[in-house]
Specification:
Elements lengths: L10 E3 L7 H14 L2 E8 L6 H10 L5 E9 L3 H10 L7 E5 L3 H12 L9 H15 L4 E4 L9 H12 L7 E6 L2 E2 L2 E2 L2 H18 L3 H7 L9 E4 L1 H5 L2 E2 L4 H12 L5 E7 L17 H19 L6 H28 L6 H24 L6 E2 L2 H7 L3 H16 L1
Parallel strand pairs: 1-11, 2-3, 2-5, 3-4, 6-11
Antiparallel strand pairs: 5-9, 6-9, 7-8, 10-12
Helix pairs in contact: 1-6, 5-15, 7-8, 7-11, 7-12, 7-13, 10-11, 11-13, 12-13
Protein name: Glucosyl-3-phosphoglycerate synthase
Keywords: Glycosyltransferase, Transferase
EC number: 2.4.1.266
């Protein structure tokens, strides 16, 4: 059970009473008459063969307040797409699968490439972007939730709590970020948030001072959570990063577009576990190594747009300050783990911090060498301006795939 403490400048909605899911869903069903709700599920085909997604679909089949479920399917052949149609067929809600590797959606992507508007990097960001475009094209939803498809501890409470703040007509929130304790199997997880993001933000505050953007990011309890919800208007102007900086990038975008009293975070789970990325010490283009570089670059890039001037010496100072603060955090997490009877491997924690410290500097130097790099996918407002019939093409591609192969 959480406490009621409000930290930082973002409203925190806690889980104080273990409220009945039936009671909350009954409210959401009433809200859905005013604000129809959609869910976005970005997934890889491989996740259909894993243990998490089958349980997620079983839980979602019990949800009555959703108007639509949009599934973004990556890395799937024709036969695998057909299997995905069968896999998700038990969902009673209206649902559609975006077969991102299929010829029809690839043709849509080619049209955007010719205009210089297509995502430049494949991955979750690209998948989410097309799903959100499809929801805009449908024009039937007022509130949208998004969560990952590898959540091993999933139950439908997570979705209800996640979408409630943007579905309740008496609330004024445009965007809501989910958070949870990253504890499972008697271990403390969430290394990138614990050992990179939080100590990096504290290091940047120490060197640059208490900037509004740093205070804003530091207000989120779990900034890298893949679960968030928003009013549909948010989609129009938001630019989604195509790399591992997706979650930080989305937080930066809503901060740019909305005042902080329109943003919130909500406790959505007592426990949360999903598949874990490798540290990838020897490969900066994979795993947590690439993730740490992309996230660091995203933060530096945003600070630069706010007027912060960086130099090689600045990034060396940031690296040194980060490293010291992160090592101190390891001691804090160790003590927190011990009092709760959890396991924490100090050696592996320090290995992660050493890698992240090197990558903070790499990210900084990369930024200095490529100051104009923009990994953001254009907003749908811009895309529709350049290609007025893009929504019709997107809907036709998705629906024609379904009609042919269902």
């Amino acid at each position: 059970m959480g406490d009621f403490y409000q930290n930082g400048i973002i409203t925190t909605l806690h889980n104080l009473s273990s409220r009945s899911i039936d009671e909350m869903e009954a409210e959401l069903l009433q809200f859905s008459k005013i604000r129809p709700m959609s869910l976005v599920l970005p997934c890889l085909y491989s996740e259909l063969e894993g243990p998490a997604l089958d349980k997620i679909v079983t839980e979602l089949a019990k949800v009555r307040y959703l108007n639509e479920i949009v599934i973004g399917l990556d890395r799937a052949s024709e036969e695998q797409y057909k299997h995905a149609i069968q896999f998700f067929s038990r969902l009673p809600q209206k649902h559609r699968i975006l077969w991102n590797d299929g010829p029809r959606l690839q043709e849509v992507n080619s049209v955007l490439q010719n205009q210089g508007l297509a995502p430049k990097e494949l991955g979750k960001g690209c998948n989410v972007w097309y799903c959100l475009g499809y929801i805009l094209a449908q024009g039937t939803s007022a509130s949208v939730a998004l969560h990952d498809c590898d959540i091993l501890t999933y139950d439908r409470n997570l979705l209800a709590r996640l979408i409630y703040p943007v579905a309740n007509p008496s609330f004024n929130y445009q965007f809501c970020k989910g958070y949870y304790a990253r504890v499972a199997d008697s271990k403390m997880n969430g290394r990138v948030t614990r050992l990179l993001v939080t100590p990096l933000l504290r290091a940047l505050k120490k060197i640059l001072g208490s900037l509004d953007y740093l205070e804003y990011l530091d207000s989120y309890r779990y900034p890298l959570a893949g679960e968030f919800s928003f009013r549909v208007d948010v989609i129009n102007d938001i630019r989604i990063p195509s790399d591992w900086g997706l979650e930080i990038g989305v937080l930066s975008e809503v901060n740019r577009n909305y005042s902080t009293n329109r943003l919130c975070q909500v406790d959505i789970a007592d426990r949360y576990d999903h598949k874990h990325q490798n540290l990838s010490v020897d490969d900066a283009q994979a795993g947590l190594s690439k993730m740490s570089i992309d996230i660091s670059k995203g933060i530096f890039r945003k600070l630069a747009t706010n007027g912060v001037v960086f130099s090689t010496e600045t990034f060396r100072s940031i690296k040194a300050t980060y490293y010291r603060i992160a090592l101190d955090f390891i001691e804090t997490y160790r003590n927190d783990a011990i009092i709760n009877g959890l396991a924490l491997d100090i050696h592996n924690e320090e290995k992660a911090v050493e890698l992240f410290a090197e990558n903070v500097l790499k990210a900084g130097l990369h930024f200095l060498d490529n100051p104009m790099e923009t990994p953001f996918i254009p907003s749908w407002n811009r895309v529709q301006s350049a290609v007025p019939d893009i929504f019709a093409s997107l809907c036709s591609a998705v629906d024609d795939d379904y009609q042919e192969f269902a």
